[in-house]
């Protein structure tokens, strides 16, 4: 889960990293008051979980409270790369002398975290790394020892960061570890004209797997924007809405991704990703099918299950339940193989629903479902 | 032969007395796995009856190793306890720890994979189906009855795609199938398995299954070009995955231009790997490379 900038700022502050004074609001009138409290001038920043806010016009410097209100009114509701701006943060402007970059990122290949630092902050670090790789310092952090002060000193020296940033590096590591973050990034970290080191903007990605021990974030867990995704999430389903017309349900992330590709290869577009997981019950299958069938964009459904832990008879039972519960109007193509497949197929045969057909192979099933979707009238 | 897991492997199960542990221990035993004990400090000294075999429960991995000579452990404990379980196994000198548990915090995985590596313990997983050497031993939750022993080695991030390929190639059979797991940090990589299959006399050909996210497949491609002489057939899932969305596996996410299926396929093909566009086509490439006819049932 990515945090908003203002949440990242809050975390940094809690861990003793200096951040600008700031406040968040969704109201232009309130923005005026905040600007006044900040001393009149304020930077008004869109709170969206995507980069490129500045280029999109989502960051404005307001010279006085009236301008802050006007900027907030302009930015609120703006669409930035598909993200609607629901809130703005107003921050006190800082007089910058120099901008730096520091982050800890997960290095999958090494199986650990990497400290990344540069004296050329303020822009996308990928661009700096591409143009002048020598300007970006990368130091692996020992998983057993964590980030020690001597390592932080070495990183700061190598990257050309000011000595006071060693403290920031150490505290930022504490944010990473204590909050179970997968990424913490400060860009830019600035030296102000009056010599302070301030984290001006930041990004934090938390590990969803750690929510069981990071309970404060559980409450703030972003609710899915898409109504179908919200419904699926409420039922504990692993569902991602896509743009197409073939609803896809399968077991196991890899097999479902593969099924989406095979559908696309048949000339149709998948409407969603839905992984019912290992050992799914009939209830999970029924819930999944009812969510997918309720998507108005779906013209046909493909159920592709290879039973390992999952028993195909439970899957078939779930399909039968959903048929009774939601009374579908769209064709459903089912391919069952593996654990208890014969029993599962027999269950579906016995139900003999006119909209349900079985296929013996994954490719065959995908091509049937694709044909149904592309042949169906648009007003289905 | 096979890799990492053979008939001689003596297997402990951490979390054996839980519901999942019980179910899968029964299945592992039925597949011929030499399960020599379970580990649960609260149930030490008891035995669990699995029909044809009673399995003792030990208070610690170390006790299990001392009493049975166990060299493999399969970990089914809940996410919050996985780090302690793997650390304990590594400290007890276990050679192979297979971590089935899903949902382990990445900081924990980083810690226990590093700890295990420093002690010479291979970790497979986490969030994986484990590995099977058909006809010899099964450590994890891969269904043992899909396929038979044979000349194909398989390494995959995905469980069900592994089963799908095992099924497509059931007439050919496998030396070992390793599900390395879909998390961002895993103990055993595609490259580790490619190296082991290259050295395994029973493996004639390797199937490599990858998916979006990270650059493990690209690195595997470099390794294949420089170090693998046996034929490799590839498959990549996730061509239709949108940017920035996690597709089920925590590690399966396309960020910007990195981690795309297209890039992975291109890297593998540049290294001389034949890449199938569906699991079925992948199976056909395997049959062709082995000089076997494509027939109904196999690769169909």
TrEMBL record, chain A:
Single Gene Ontology BP annotation: succinyl-CoA metabolic process
Cofactor(s) of this protein: Mg(2+)
Keywords: ATP-binding, Ligase, Magnesium, Metal-binding, Nucleotide-binding, Tricarboxylic acid cycle
Amino acids binding substrate: 251, 308-310
Keyword Transmembrane: no
Cofactor binding note: Binds 1 Mg(2+) ion per subunit.
Residues at which Mg(2+) binds: 187, 201
Reactions catalysed: GTP + succinate + CoA = succinyl-CoA + GDP + phosphate; succinate + ATP + CoA = succinyl-CoA + ADP + phosphate
Pathway assigned to this chain's UniProt record: Carbohydrate metabolism; tricarboxylic acid cycle; succinate from succinyl-CoA (ligase route): step 1/1
GO CC annotation, single: succinate-CoA ligase complex
First-level EC class: ligase
EC id: 6.2.1.5
SUPFAM superfamilies named in the record: Glutathione synthetase ATP-binding domain-like (SSF56059), Succinyl-CoA synthetase domains (SSF52210)
Residue positions binding ATP: 45, 52-54, 94, 99
Function, as annotated: Succinyl-CoA synthetase functions in the citric acid cycle (TCA), coupling the hydrolysis of succinyl-CoA to the synthesis of either ATP or GTP and thus represents the only step of substrate-level phosphorylation in the TCA. The beta subunit provides nucleotide specificity of the enzyme and binds the substrate succinate, while the binding sites for coenzyme A and phosphate are found in the alpha subunit.
PANTHER family: SUCCINATE--COA LIGASE [GDP-FORMING] SUBUNIT BETA, MITOCHONDRIAL, SUCCINYL-COA SYNTHETASE BETA CHAIN
Similarity comment: Belongs to the succinate/malate CoA ligase beta subunit family.
Protein name: Succinate--CoA ligase [ADP-forming] subunit beta
Organism placement in taxonomy: Bacteria, Bacillati, Actinomycetota, Actinomycetes, Kitasatosporales
Gene this chain is encoded by: sucC
Automatic annotation (TrEMBL), chain B:
Active site residues of this protein: 249 (tele-phosphohistidine intermediate)
Reaction catalyzed: GTP + succinate + CoA = succinyl-CoA + GDP + phosphate; succinate + ATP + CoA = succinyl-CoA + ADP + phosphate
EC id: 6.2.1.5
Family per similarity comment: Belongs to the succinate/malate CoA ligase alpha subunit family.
SUPFAM superfamilies associated with the record: NAD(P)-binding Rossmann-fold domains, Succinyl-CoA synthetase domains
Function summary: Succinyl-CoA synthetase functions in the citric acid cycle (TCA), coupling the hydrolysis of succinyl-CoA to the synthesis of either ATP or GTP and thus represents the only step of substrate-level phosphorylation in the TCA. The alpha subunit of the enzyme binds the substrates coenzyme A and phosphate, while succinate binding and nucleotide specificity is provided by the beta subunit.
Name of the protein described by the UniProt record: Succinate--CoA ligase [ADP-forming] subunit alpha
Binding positions (substrate): 163
Top EC category: ligase
């Amino acid at each position: 889960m990515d945090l908003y900038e203002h949440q990242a700022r809050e975390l940094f502050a809690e861990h003793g990293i200096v951040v600008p004074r700031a406040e968040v609001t969704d109201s232009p009138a309130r923005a005026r008051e905040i600007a006044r409290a900040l001393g009149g001038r304020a930077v008004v920043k869109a709170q969206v979980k995507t980069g490129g806010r500045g280029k999109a016009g989502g960051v404005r410097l307001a010279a006085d409270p009236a301008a802050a209100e006007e900027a907030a009114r302009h930015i609120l509701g703006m669409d930035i790369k598909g993200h609607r701006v629901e809130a703005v943060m107003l921050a006190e402007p800082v007089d910058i002398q120099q901008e730096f970059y520091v982050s800890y990122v997960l290095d999958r290949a090494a199986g650990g975290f990497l400290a990344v630092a540069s004296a050329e902050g303020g822009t996308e670090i990928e661009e700096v790394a591409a143009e002048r790789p020598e300007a970006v310092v990368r130091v692996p952090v020992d998983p057993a020892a964590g980030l020690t002060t001597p390592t932080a000193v070495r990183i700061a020296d190598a990257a050309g960061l000011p000595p006071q940033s060693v403290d920031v590096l150490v505290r930022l590591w504490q944010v990473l570890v204590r909050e179970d973050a997968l990424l913490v990034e400060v860009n830019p970290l600035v030296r102000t004209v009056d010599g302070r080191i301030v984290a001006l903007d930041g990004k934090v990605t938390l590990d969803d797997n750690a929510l069981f021990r990071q309970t404060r974030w559980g409450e703030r867990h972003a609710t899915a924007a898409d109504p179908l995704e919200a419904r699926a999430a409420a039922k504990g389903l692993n569902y991602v809405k896509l743009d197409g017309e073939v609803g896809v349900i399968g077991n196991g992330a890899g097999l479902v991704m593969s099924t989406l590709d095979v559908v696309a290869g048949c000339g149709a577009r998948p409407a969603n990703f839905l992984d019912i997981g290992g050992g799914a019950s009939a209830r999970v299958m029924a819930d999944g099918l009812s969510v997918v069938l309720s998507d108005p964009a779906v013209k046909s459904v493909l159920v592709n299950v290879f039973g390992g832990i999952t028993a195909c008879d439970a899957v078939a039972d779930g399909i039968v339940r959903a048929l009774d519960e939601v009374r579908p109007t769209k064709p459903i193509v089912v391919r069952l193989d593996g654990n208890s497949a014969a029993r599962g197929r027999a269950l579906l045969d016995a139900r003999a629903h006119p909209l349900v057909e079985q296929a013996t192979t994954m490719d065959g099933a995908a091509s049937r479902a694709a044909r149904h979707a592309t042949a169906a009238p648009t007003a289905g | 032969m096979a890799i990492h897991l053979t008939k001689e492997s003596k297997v402990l199960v951490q979390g054996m007395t839980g519901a999942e542990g019980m179910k899968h221990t029964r299945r592992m035993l039925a597949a011929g796995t030499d399960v020599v004990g379970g580990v649960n400090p609260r149930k030490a000294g008891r035995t669990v009856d699995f029909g044809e075999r009673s399995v003792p429960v030990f208070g610690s991995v170390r006790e299990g190793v001392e009493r049975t000579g166990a060299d493999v452990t399969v970990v089914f404990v809940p996410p919050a306890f996985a780090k302690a379980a793997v650390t304990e196994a590594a400290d007890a000198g276990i050679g192979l720890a297979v971590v089935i548990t899903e949902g382990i915090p990445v900081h924990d995985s980083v810690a226990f994979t590093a700890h295990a590596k420093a002690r010479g313990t291979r970790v497979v997983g986490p969030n994986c189906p484990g590995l099977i050497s058909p006809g010899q031993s099964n450590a994890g939750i891969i269904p043992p009855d899909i396929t038979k022993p044979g000349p194909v080695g398989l390494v995959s991030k995905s469980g069900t795609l592994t089963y799908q390929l095992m099924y497509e190639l059931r007439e050919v059979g496998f030396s070992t199938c390793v599900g390395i797991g879909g998390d961002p940090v895993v103990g055993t990589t595609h490259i580790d398995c490619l190296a082991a299959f290259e050295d395994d006399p029973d493996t004639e050909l390797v199937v490599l299954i990858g998916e979006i996210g990270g650059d493990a497949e690209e690195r595997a491609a470099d390794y294949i070009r420089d170090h693998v002489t046996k034929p490799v057939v590839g498959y990549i899932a996730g061509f239709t995955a949108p940017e920035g969305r996690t597709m089920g596996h925590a590690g399966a996410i396309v960020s910007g231009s990195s981690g795309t299926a297209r890039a992975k396929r291109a890297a593998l093909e540049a290294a001389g790997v034949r890449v199938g566009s569906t699991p079925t086509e992948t199976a056909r490439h395997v049959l062709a490379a082995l000089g076997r006819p494509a027939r109904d049932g196999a690769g169909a």
